[in-house]
Amino acid sequence: MAIQFSEKQLALIRRPFIDGSLEVNEGTPRSGKTTAGAFRAARYYIETQDRDHLVLGYNHEQAFKLFIDCDGMGLLHIFAGNCRIRHDPDYGDFLGITTPDGRGGSTEKRIFYKGGGKADSYKSFQGLSFGSVVFLEIDLLHSNTWQEAFRRTMAARKRWHLADLNPPSPQHPVIKDVFEAQRTIWQHWTMDDNPILTPERKQALYEQLKKSPYLYERDWLGHRCIPQGVIYSMFSQRENVKAKLEGDIVEMYFSGDGGLSDATSVCCNIVTRDNKAGKPIYRLYRAANYYYSGSDTGTVKAMSVQAREIALTFVPWCRNKFGRRETCLLIDPACKALREELKLYGLDARNADNNGHEIAGNSKGIKVGIERVQSSIEERRLLWLDTEEYGHYDCFRELGLYVRDQHGNPVDAYNHAMDDMRYGHNYFYKHYIK
To answer: What is the C-alpha end-to-end distance of the chain, expressed in Å?
Structure first.
């Protein structure tokens, strides 16, 4: 199959490798930087004499999806017929690639892929030696992961690092602690650098993003900018994300927002209770999150397929994980298709409260629900449970991108997990807070 690359992609793939360098591809989503990075890394794996290499994503699943698979353009497909997924009982999953050894024979390179979003993620590769490290969405990885990963390549024969990211805020520590501290080769990317985006698709994205000055600067121009108008700016990864549930479990229920090309987000909500000074304190945990986006993956799953995955895989996983049965499943009223499909599996799928006709003070509709969620986040009453499987990567991404426009209204973008969160919180608020 012939692959069409842009001039910038070709220049990146063909560029000579500089020993000890960190190559950073920073720019807009859907700019083609990750695909070009996968082909560049493939060149490096063929040329290097080092056997072992590391690919880091926010979690294990993201590392595989973004680089090993990469929508059919990743290492698994570049080396098709000369590679296979393997597992080392001591070191974990890796892609074994057969490459020429320069002497008429062949040798195997091992590309380990792991998660790096947690404070202790570095322990999964501590003590190992690698020729290279690829950092996917490096700004989302924990600083402990950056530091340990660079140490792991110090003995490489041809030491090389590659990172990609969407523009972070100008104050993000990755800029000072990594980019300015390494031998960095930086390149900027926009949607014009991706040959698969048609003019019509780019125009549609422009019309969507121009509604928010922040999203226009970040996701259209690819500039680092302070996220003015972020709705849930009070969210703290340190304060709102917990390693375990605290208190006694009172109830488990699900909430969700569905779509085909848009994302489907279904969350397992767990309410806990602590009794302090004779007064019960209730907390709501987002304990696990099913998230599927047709626009992000490039493929569209039928609603019946998504419902089957939710009903037969995600819901049973949550039941087994937390030892509870759900009381209900609250789905966006506008998503009748998902709700009816879930009912076919015997699930108690109901209309969620979407704040449609609600008024509180000067706030109306969705703004009422948003303000209540903001209060619960700020008071650390709404929490996230740090889970490896069905984790919150996509929810955390939306938290940083869900913004208001110049009129103070929520922009209709990056809001699928945010709507799901609001539906789940509405139930919690009216049953346990109000």
So the answer is: 60
Report yes or no: 28 and 222 within 8 Å, Cβ to Cβ.
yes
Residue 191 CB-density burial (10 A; 0-12 exposed, 13-18 middle, 19+ buried): buried
Question: How many domains in the chain?
Answer: 2
CATH of the domain at 252: 3.30.420.280
For residues 241 and 371, what is the distance between their CA atoms, to the nearest angstrom?
20
Query: Which pLDDT tens digit goes with each residue over 16-65?
Result: 999 999 999 999 999 999 999 999 999 999 999 999 999 999 999 999 99
Residues 6+ apart with CB under 8 A from 354: 332, 333, 334, 366, 369, 419, 422, 423, 426
Beta strands in 28-131 (DSSP E): 52-57, 83-88, 92-100, 106-115
pTM for this structure? 0.78
Neighbour tally for 345: CB within 10 Å: 13
CB atoms inside a 10 Å sphere around CB 189? 26
Would you say residue 370 lies in a domain? yes
| Residue 235 DSSP code | -
Nearest by Cα to 22 from 37, 7, 9: 37
Model confidence band, residue 267 (pLDDT cutoffs 50, 70, 90)? very high
User: Is residue 193 a contact partner of residue 31, using CB atoms and an 8 Å limit?
Assistant: yes
Residue of 173, 52, 169 whose CA lies nearest to 111: 52
Element at 13 (helix H, strand E) = helix 7-14
**Domain-terminating residue out of 174, 189, 204:** 189
pLDDT at 36: 97
d(CA 380, CA 283): 8
CA distances (Å), origin 58, targets 82, 243, 406: 27, 16, 32
153 or 101: which carries more pLDDT confidence? Answer: 153
- Residue 230 in any domain: the answer is no
